[in-house]
Structure formats: C-alpha cells, structure tokens
Specification:
The chain has about 450 residues and is an alpha/beta fold. Helix content is about 30%, strand content about 25%. The protein has twelve helices and 19 strands. Strands 1, 2, 3, 4, 5, 16, 17, 18 and 19 form a nine-stranded mixed β-sheet that branches. An eight-stranded parallel β-sheet has the order 6-9-10-11-12-13-14-15. Strand 9, helix 2 and strand 10 form a beta-alpha-beta unit. The two termini are about 35 Å apart. The structure holds zinc ion.
Length: about 450
C-alpha cells in the first residue's frame, strides 16, 4: 500500500518546507519535491501543514478512581485522540498495594488490546516498592515499559514517602528508566482538606483552595533535589503553578536534567472557573488544580524557552452526571480529572502559534518530538523522516471549529472549553500508514493500535 501526500507544508521540530511524502505500508520511505511516483492513493495537502502525529504522554483511559472509572476506555479515548491529531499515547498502568508490576501491566494491556485505534505505551505507577518490585522495574525497562510514575500526593492511596521515592530514583540510575513525578505535598493538602471540611466548606472551589501552589512548588523542589542526590534525571508531570516552574527553571539553570510537562487546561483555564455557579466548578476538579490567570504567561514563557519540554493532557474524564456528583456534598469526593485528549493540538496551535507565543516548530516539538525523545519513541515517532512510522497529521491552519461536548468524540457529558472557537484543525490522520481519520471521518478500527515497546533513557 502506497500513499502519496502531495504539496503540503511539511513541518517538524526543526524544518518547514513544501514537499511530498511517500508512505509505503507502515513507514515514510521518501520525501521530496514534486515526487512522481505511482501510489494507491494521492492526498492533496496543498495549503495544509503535514505534521508528525501528536504524542500525548499523559492519559488515563479506563482508570478506576474514587469509586468510579474514567469515562473513556481505550476505544473511545483513542478515537477521540485520533480526531484531535494524536497518534500515540502513553497511558498509566497502576500497581495496587500487594500486586506485582507485571500484574498491573498485564491488566492494562488487556484494557487496551483489541480496543486501541492508535499506538499506546504505558508508564507504570508504583504504589509499593518491595525488593521484588525493584527487580521488576529492571525487567519492565527491558520490556519497553521504561518510565515509572510516583506520587507525592494522595496519602493512603498512591503517596510514597521520600525514602521510597529515593530508592526508586536510585534504581533508575542503574536500569535506564525514567521517574515521572506527581509533585504536590500530599500531607499538607490532606490537613487543609480536613480543616476545610470541618469548617463546613464543601463546594468544588475548595478543591483548589486546599491545594496551594506552594505545595506543588515545595514537592517539585524536593523531587528535583532527590533526583539530584541520586544523580538521575526527573520528569515532573502536569506542572500547573508558576511557583513550581521556578523550581524547574532554577534546577535547569544549574545544569540539572530536570524536565517537566504542562497541560492545555493550565494554559487556557484558571481558578476563576471554580467560581462558576452551582456545582459547575466540579467540571474543573483535577490535581493539581487550575491556578490564577496571572501565572499563564509564565507557563508560556517556560514553553517558549524550554524550561517546559512537553504539553500532554492528563486526559481523565468523568461525567458530571453520576460521577462528578459523587462529591456534591463534599469536594474531596469529586473524582479528579477532566477531558482533553481530543482538543490539545487545536488549543495549543490556536492559543500558542497563532498568538505568537510559540513558533510552529516549537508547537510540533512540544506536542510530538520532545515527548518522543523523552519517552524512548524517537525517531520512530515524533518526526517526519524516511524510516519513521507514517504517523502523519494533515492539519488545516485556517479552518475554525467550535469546541463542544456535542460534537467532540470523548465520552463525557461536558467540555471544559464549551463554546470556545479555535482556528487550526486536524483534517486527515494516518497511523502507521493507515488513514484513520479521512477528512474528518473516522476510518480506523478498534485494535488497530499496537503496544509501543519504548527504548530506555538516552537523556
Ligand atoms: Zn495524571
């Protein structure tokens, strides 16, 4: 099967030029100007951008949380991802206490198999680190699960103490894995939550008011300090607060391999959303919470100057009906998370590139190339080059669209950006050479995605 994509503007993290891309079976084989090669299908991309498929390195599909399960499974979630121009995800498998990492990995492989429409990998969430689990970490790295997520928040559920975190960091120094950290001071937050509830504060906004930015900054600083002592890199997930970014910037200025991602919700939404009437603030209950609007410019600067290296979504949707309402009388029982897997590329293009905050190349780097490099997928993913997987997005930079739960494909009954106009839309999407979105219509299939065995750290 040969597909020739003609006349588009090919954009990678470093290049931008008009050219043709020949896809043979699953890979890109030839790039040139005015290629005259017979193909089974020719796609006219003139006036469009030809981008490497988006990589969302932070999603939670089919994830149990707080007595319910995130609303998208691997089928609906990856269909939505594909519509939004994302062709690879790295999701999280959870080791529950008493379980092995292998058991967790197999459990999440079963959730994805036969359902995922795009390629998927896993980070492993560690909640208990015995000697045996440390050995398992080495084995998982060899098998392509090369990153581990640890929590400094959610005491009693996910939170690990500093000694355990430090042991895991040391282990990655030997096995080539990467530690991803949820950096919030869970002990402090827990006390603030109990105090708020005791004072009768039950509304959704207290979720944010009991998770101060300083609690994120403190944990970010502590995580980076422990990684520095262990002499290993560290990756901070879903960084939301300008105060936390300062800690990353300070560390990077000293030459430390500290990396961090942020998410569109922290760039486009703010604390003000929690003040929406009635129970609507619950739509935005996620951890870390949305921050004051004033911090957004600092995050954009961090993205532009490479103190933040990736934009992921932390896609973890819960419906307002029957899910978010679990916390109607107690904000601490509102399932944490919001939808975002489908809207990332358009939001960041519209709010980042079109406003001049980041360049078009930087947009590609933040949404695809850099996550591919950090998580062991480059150059197979994350660029347009001969030999790379034909994960390609044909992106219309001038078409506008209105974001709405009614027209998006995520299985959730609201959208945090409802009614927002964005310019820049993914039109046709290829996953390993198969057209899975054809001019706005889904043509992929459940089970079309493959497990991504990722390489160990090279940073
Ligand atoms: Zn998450």
């Amino acid at each position: 099967m040969r597909i020739l994509i003609k006349g588009g503007t090919i954009v990678t993290a470093t290049d931008q030029y008009v050219g043709d891309v020949l896809v043979e079976d699953e890979r890109i084989t030839t790039i040139g100007v005015s290629l005259d090669i017979a193909a089974d299908r020719v796609i006219d991309a003139s006036g469009k951008y030809v981008l490497p498929g988006g990589i969302d390195c932070h999603t939670h599909l089919d994830m149990p949380f707080g007595g319910t399960t995130s609303a998208d499974d691997f089928e609906s979630g990856t269909i939505a991802a594909a519509f939004g121009g994302t062709t690879s995800i790295v999701d999280f498998a959870i080791q529950y206490k008493g379980q092995t990492l292998h058991h967790a990995w197999e459990t999440w492989m079963r959730k994805a198999e036969g359902r995922a429409t795009i390629d998927y990998g896993f980070h492993m969430i560690i909640t208990e680190l015995t000697d045996q689990v440390e050995c398992e970490m080495d084995d998982l790295v060899r098998q392509g699960v090369t990153s581990f997520k640890l929590f400094m928040a959610y005491p009693g559920v996910f939170m690990l103490d500093d000694a355990t975190i430090f042991r895991a960091l040391l282990r990655t120094g030997k096995n080539g894995g990467t530690i991803c950290m949820h950096a919030e001071n869970g002990g402090v937050i827990d006390v603030l939550v109990r105090k708020a509830l005791a004072e009768g504060h039950t509304a959704p906004k207290y979720h944010a008011l009991t998770r101060p930015a300083r609690a994120e900054a403190e944990a970010t600083h502590r995580a980076i300090a422990m990684a520095e002592i262990a002499d290993v890199p560290i990756y901070i997930v879903h960084l939301s607060a300008a105060e936390a970014l300062e800690m990353v910037t300070e560390a990077r200025d000293r030459g430390l391999p500290a990396y961090a991602e942020t998410c569109p919700q922290y760039l486009f939404l703010s604390y003000d959303n929690y003040e929406e009437p009635g129970f609507d603030g619950a739509k935005y209950v996620m951890s870390p919470p949305l921050r004051p609007k004033e911090g957004q410019d600092r995050l954009w600067r961090g993205l532009a100057f490479n103190d933040l290296q990736a934009i992921s979504t932390d896609h973890c949707p819960f419906c307002m009906k029957e899910q978010k309402t679990l916390g109607r009388d107690d904000f601490s029982k509102i399932p944490n998370g919001a939808p975002g897997i489908e809207t990332r590329m358009s939001l960041v293009y519209d709010g980042g590139v079109r406003t001049g905050r980041i360049s078009l190349n930087r947009f590609v780097e933040l949404t695809s190339t850099s996550p591919a490099k950090i998580f062991g997928l480059f150059p197979r993913k994350g660029t347009i080059a001969p030999g790379s997987d034909a994960d390609i997005v044909i992106f219309d930079p001038i078409r506008a669209s209105t974001l709405s739960a009614r027209t998006l494909h995520m299985k959730v009954d609201y959208n945090p950006y409802e009614g927002r106009q964005v310019t820049g839309v993914s039109e046709t999407v290829l996953s390993r050479g198969r057209v899975i979105i054809d001019n706005g219509t889904f043509t992929g299939r459940a089970g079309g995605g493959n497990f991504l065995k990722r390489a160990e750290r090279r940073l």
